[in-house]
Design goal:
alpha/beta; Metallo-beta-lactamase, Chain A; seven-stranded mixed beta sheet; four-stranded mixed beta sheet; 7 helices; 26% strand; disordered N terminus
Length: 272
C-alpha cells in the first residue's frame, strides 16, 4: 500500500468515523447497550490516553485504555483498541490530532484488549512491536502477532531516519531515553510489560496495574498470581519518579495504584 493510498483511506475514513460516532452514541431501545466510540484525551505534556470499549455481559461496555506519546513530531502508540474497526477509528483520531500516523506501536501483552487491532496497524504501515512471548501467545489465542519481537535479554531499538529511539533496555538510563519499556516478570500474564514516559513522569501500567476502585485482580485466566505482587514491586522500584499511573481498566491515578495492586495480589495469593 502506497503512502498516498494510506492518506486517501484515512480521508475517506473521516466520514465513516463521523457516522460511526452517531450510531455508537445512540442505543436503540430493546437492542441492548452499545459500546461508545474510541476517544483520545491528553493527560500530560506529550501524553494522551486512548479509550475503547467492548460490550461484555454482564458488565456492558467494558473500558480498555492505551497510551499515545508524542515528542519532536514523532508519535508512538501503546496498545491497540479492542478490534480492527476501533483501531482504525483511533488512527483517524491520532492523524487528526498530530497530522500524522504513529511511527510504531508497542503491545503490552497478548490479550484482545491490547492487540485486537494489530491488523489495522499493519494495514496503515504502523510498525508493531511486542515481546517474543507475546507473539508466541498471540498465535495460540487467535490474535495476529506483531511484525517485530523484542528480546528481553538484550537492548532493542527502533528508529526513524536520523532519530534513533531506544525504547527497551534491561537497564534503566533516564539520561539517555525519553521513554522506556520494562518487563517486570509475570503478573496479569507471563508477558506483561509497562511503559514509562520520563518527561511527564507517566507510567502506563496496562493490565498489570489495577484501578483504585478494583476489589480484585480482574481477569486471572493467564495470570501468575504468586508473582504478581513482586512484578508490581519491580515496576515501583524501577520507576521511583513516576507520578501518574495509567491502568488499562479504570481511572488514571498516582503511585497509590501500585500499592493497591500489590495489596490485591497479596490477598489473592494468600487465598490460593
Amino acid at each position: 500500500m502506497s503512502v498516498s493510498t494510506v492518506r486517501s483511506s484515512l480521508s475517506l475514513f473521516a466520514a465513516a468515523c463521523a457516522a460511526f460516532s452517531v450510531v455508537a452514541a445512540v442505543a436503540v431501545a430493546g437492542e441492548g447497550e452499545v459500546a461508545p466510540p474510541p476517544s483520545l484525551d491528553q493527560i500530560a505534556d506529550g501524553v494522551w490516553v486512548h479509550k475503547s470499549y467492548k460490550v461484555i455481559e454482564p458488565w456492558g461496555p467494558f473500558l480498555s485504555q492505551g497510551m499515545v506519546l508524542e515528542k519532536n513530531g514523532i508519535v508512538f502508540l501503546i496498545d491497540t483498541a479492542w478490534n480492527d474497526k476501533d483501531t482504525e477509528t483511533l488512527l483517524f483520531l491520532i492523524k487528526q490530532q498530530f497530522g500524522r500516523l504513529p511511527f510504531a506501536a508497542i503491545i503490552t501483552h497478548a490479550h484482545e484488549d491490547k492487540m485486537g487491532g494489530v491488523s489495522a496497524l499493519r494495514q496503515y504501515r504502523v510498525e508493531t512491536h511486542a515481546l517474543r512471548e507475546t507473539n508466541e501467545d498471540a498465535k495460540a489465542r487467535g490474535l495476529l502477532r506483531t511484525q517485530f519481537s523484542i528480546d528481553p535479554a538484550r537492548r532493542y531499538t527502533v528508529f526513524e531516519s536520523a532519530s534513533r529511539l531506544n525504547f527497551y533496555d534491561q537497564n534503566y538510563y533516564p539520561e539517555k531515553r525519553w521513554f522506556h519499556v520494562f518487563y517486570p516478570g509475570p503478573g496479569h500474564t507471563r508477558d506483561n510489560i509497562v511503559v514509562y514516559y520520563a518527561p511527564a513522569k507517566v507510567l502506563f501500567g496496562g493490565c498489570l496495574i489495577r484501578p483504585g476502585n478494583a476489589t480484585d485482580l480482574g481477569n486471572t485466566a493467564d495470570a501468575d498470581i504468586g508473582h504478581w505482587a513482586d512484578a508490581v514491586r519491580a515496576v515501583a522500584a524501577r520507576f521511583p519518579d513516576a507520578e501518574i499511573v495509567i491502568p488499562s481498566h479504570g481511572a488514571v491515578g498516582g503511585r497509590e495504584l501500585l500499592d493497591h495492586t500489590i495489596a490485591l495480589a497479596e490477598a489473592a495469593a494468600n487465598a490460593q
